[in-house]
Amino acid sequence: MGRNLFQGIIPPSLESLRGLEILDLSDNNFSGQIPKFLEQFVFLQLLNLSRNHFEGEVPTNGVFKNTSATLIMANGILDQGRHTVAIKVLNLSRHGASKSFKAECEALRNIRHRNLVKVLTSCSGIDYQGHDFKALVMEFMGNGSLDEWLHPTPRINETLQEQRSLSLFQRLNIAIDVANALDYLHHHCQTPIVHCDIKPSNVLLDDEMIGHVGDFGLARFLFDATQDSSINQSSSIGIRGTIGYTPPEYGMGNEVFNIW
Question: Can you give the pTM of this predicted structure?
Answer without folding.
Answer: 0.57
